[in-house]
Structure formats: C-alpha cells, structure tokens
Amino acid sequence: MAGEQCSSAEDFVKICRQKTKAINTIFVKQAQLDVTKSMLEKSFSNLSSIPDIRNHHHFKALHKDIIRYGQYSTSENQYVFRF
C-alpha cells in the first residue's frame, strides 16, 4: 500500500481494491459482526460436547444425532455419542 494513507478499515478495503483485483476484500460493519456473533453464540450454547475430543481424529455419522468416534479409524476403542 505504498504511497497511500490508511487510517481506517474502510480505507484499507478501498486501497486493497485499487491495488489488486486478484484478492477480494470486503468491509464488514461492527453491527453486522455483533448480530452474527450473537446468533452464533446462541446456536453454540445448546451444543453437547464430545468428551476428550482433542484426542480423537476419526468421526463417523451413524444416524441423525448419533456418531461413532475413536482415536483413529482403525482403533479398537470406538465410542458412540448421542447428541
């Protein structure tokens, strides 16, 4: 952005659009972020968490709201979780 004055996020997007067409940039207003954040927090607040999920890398949907998971696809220990 050499030679350009950038003092806000809107300026940044404007300069990016002038400098290149290869990268798509958009400006998102704070109000849009706040609405989306609120909606996502509401959605995620009702989720059940899978125990010890960080140690598991294989997940398979068995049915709506039921999964089987294990450390790997070939692991002897597989678990079933119902949401």
TrEMBL record:
* Protein name, UniProt field: Uncharacterized protein
- Species source reads Rotaria magnacalcarata
